Amino acid sequence: MTKQLVVTERRRLTAVRAARLFDGVGSALVANPLVVLDGTTILGVESGGTAPDGADVVDLGGATLLPGLIDTHVHLAFDASTEPVARLAARNDEQALAAMAEAGRATLRAGVTTVRDLGDRGYLSLALRDRPDQPALVAAGPPITSPGGHCHFLGGVAEASEAGVRAAVREHVDRGTDVIKIMASGGTMTPGTRQEEAQFDRNVLRAAVDEAHRHGLPVTAHAHGTSAIADALAAGVDGMEHVTFWTATGVEHSEDLLRAVVDLGVAVGATVGMVPVEGLVPPEEIASRMPGVIGNYRRLHELGARVVAGTDAGIAPVKPHGVLPWAPLMLRQIGLSPADALRAITSVAAGVCGLAHRKGRVAPGFDADLLAVDGDPLADPRALLRVQAVCARGRWVE
């Protein structure tokens, strides 16, 4: 019997040219880059060079190429209105998912090709994973919180006991989440909670972390107040969001805790990145604390902490989806060099999201996620706002 030979046409390569390249890890721009894409993967990167025979050539002229940006803290379920909680409550799941998908598309158009959603309603974000019109998505599902605690309306309420949080973690595991988010302190979006007050006992937090790690999932804690920060560190969390050292009257500085963050290797999700909106100014309780918060972030960076930009996109008009390109302006304020600021939203962010093996760099074997901007983002951080082209997993975003 003669076997039939089946011939399939090889996928065409794409060769992308630009004037400059920030590769995600270096401190200087590479001149005249040629980036060769093989479908969803980067095949080769060199300065100058010749496009492979038969490749489709995309010439971006004087643009600068970067890896697709990575936001480590978004909320696709919130619509960046003045009443995001009420607006979400008014939507059924189908409507909410449609709004979340549009938020994801807006995020992609801004050059943010990967996001970590740290709080949805009822696990809705999981339905957006792997959709071609969405950023790559690391999903936490509804954050685990105490009864009546911060963001309880998203559905992640757990009994504030060791057994209660273990059961909540197992539910998240069963639903297929990528990371566990737990509310170690209160927050401003939830009446009846306060940012400076802890929501879980230290041993309860430790049980949640132990259960998550037993199932191979990392844990990041929403932690504002000093006691919540101390408890989260003692519990062994992998990351913390906000880390403001918020008190009832201001912001504390605890050198011991700042050093502990670094010594324990805990990633810091700095809440940075805001779009100026005419007529909107921060509430006085936030504005008065910002110098202290920035000072603590600066000290964390000086000590060697892994600081990334977690914008909290979606929670207010100054935090629209796709706000991440504004973050390097504030990252520089807290002492990051221009290159450090870009690494914080590319390669370092990829590591915090558990994606260091395929995201955050323009290098062979990495995902074909590219952002092209007008200008030099090392010299001018606002260049990130001048998007010329976005490629997400080998597909050009329209």
Automatic annotation (TrEMBL):
Stretches assigned to the Amidohydrolase-related domain: 64-397
GO molecular function: hydrolase activity, acting on carbon-nitrogen (but not peptide) bonds
InterPro entries listed in its UniProt record: Amidohydro-rel, Metal-dep_hydrolase_composite, Metal_Hydrolase, Metallo-dep_Hydrolase, OTAase-like
Domain of life: Bacteria
Organism of derivation: Amycolatopsis pretoriensis
Pfam families named among the record's database cross-references: Amidohydro_1
Lineage: Bacteria, Bacillati, Actinomycetota, Actinomycetes, Pseudonocardiales
Name listed for the protein in its UniProt record: Imidazolonepropionase
